[in-house]
Sequence to fold (626 residues):
Amino acid sequence: MSLLSEIFAYFNYWVVVILIMLGMYVVMANPNLVKKVIGLNIFQTAVFIFYISMGEIEGGTAPILDDAFTRYANPLPHVLILTAIVVGVATTALALALAVRIYRAYESVEEDEIDAEDARAEVQE
Amino acid sequence: MIAQSLQVGAHLPALQVVVPLLAAPVCALIQRPRVAWATALAVSVLALLMSSALLERTLVAGPISYALGGWAAPWGIEYRVDTVNAFVLLIVSLISTLVLPFARDSVEQEVRADRIGLFYTAWMLCLTGLLGIAITGDAFNVFVFLEISSLSSYVLISLGSERRALVAAFRYLVMGTVGATFILIGVGLLYTMTGTLNMMDLAERIGAVEDTRAVKVAFVFLTVGIAIKMALFPLHAWLPNAYTYAPSAVTAFLAGSATKVAVYVWLRFFFTVFGADYAIESMSMMLLMLPLALSGIVIASLVAVFQNDAKRLLAYSSVAQIGYMALGIGLFSTTGLTAAIVHLFNHAIIKTVLFMALGCILLRTGSVRIASLAGIGRRMPWTMAAFVFGAMSLVGVPLTVGFISKWYLLLAALEFGWWPVAALVVATSLLAAVYCGRVVEAAYFRDPQPGSIQAHAREAPLTMLVPVWILIAANIYLGIDTDLTVDVARRAAVILIGAVP
Fold:
């Protein structure tokens, strides 16, 4: 029982850890470049959740100035993570653009096929 | 008039970053290759002037603190310039300014004409990012500028003429993003524990919570994240391909600046934020860094010996040289740090000139495979002579800057009485002689195939040779007169290490 409550006390952080692991695994293990980008996105999103969770305060409201409320969530991590989300979108866009260019040049987005193609070209030289 | 100039002077730290940032969209709008290039060069020269002014001011008057937008630290973002990062700013803007004149012809040949305007846009963004990382005193701001410089360098690398440049850029993107996100996690953990992002503020508050697991984990994430960006062995996998297939000018620029800035970020977090004692005692960094640095030096040098492409050979050599810097840092002594910071500067001017010489050959012959370099020394005597001088500096022949770096590194190792480490530094310098020797041997002592492009190559144009020889002159001058580099490096080391002698 105490283990369960322990887990639920840090529920967000457990989700973050699991998502980071999943994302990293996809990035490392999947040979498909587009799926690598998806893995990268899962990984980054986990970090976004981490930042948003740490701004949370128990019983706090949204950080809007009002006399009725005195406890509110810390807005700074949320602002920070907006920046990181923009960076993440830019990274994804660039990665997908590169994947399109790679597909035009190699007619494949599978890492093993690209490597085989490169090795073939190397031998021909 | 005086009041006006004072005002500009007071805003120098912001202008250092804002001017290249504004130049980026200007280059994108201009589109015409030569005009975009001229704009980039002018801005780069301006950045160099500003960073020299900043360095001079920090040497005379101590650290400068600049509140961005008038918001005082620790609430606003503080730009804090001391001797350490003023020196890094100088390295970055100097390398950019010297590579840009060279880039004009090189880029016109290697990059499609309609992309050149955007090429210089990416260059300006990369310069902005690198200068921003060096100048900022805010931990989250480091991440933002890191991503600005990284995203633009992925673009620059992907513009290489071979299709393999695309794959190299993609792999760098994946590793670079993982590294940057690790840094983001580290900064986030530090924020949860201390409630601040300002580095000076962090340094003050971290002492109270430094034994918590969160701070230790933050330290680990930051160490690994930055190690990826600086290509520390064994996290260097992205570097050889990225350097080999990027356009020559980009390779020369990134080799001299990007990894150096990452080393600086490491210094900043280890010494200013966490403090050397914490890194050594709580995190046993010496135990981790010395084996990594030494194995990186040995393995990367050995791999370099067996490369068939001169650019890739130099790329592996860069991984080894990063190892020397990590070795200097890993000793956690003033002499070791001095060696690391001196080598930061020296390796920037050595490796940039070597990659530029290869860029000249690539312009004239279209290949830098060692087999196709046969006899090139007779057709392009000035270019190859520059390469030979650069190679001597890389090996560490006396009267070159490479010697100065190695000398301080040896002194630092011997302070601890670590003879094997010193011997290893000397032995790997000999390995550098072997791999550079392979290029030199092919260029001077083999005959070109009759009728090949190499047999009829002309010398590179003056616009490319002049910056190359300016760097060679710097390599020799600063190898004899070490006041500028070693003095600044030692002062920087003393600032970083604080009260420790």
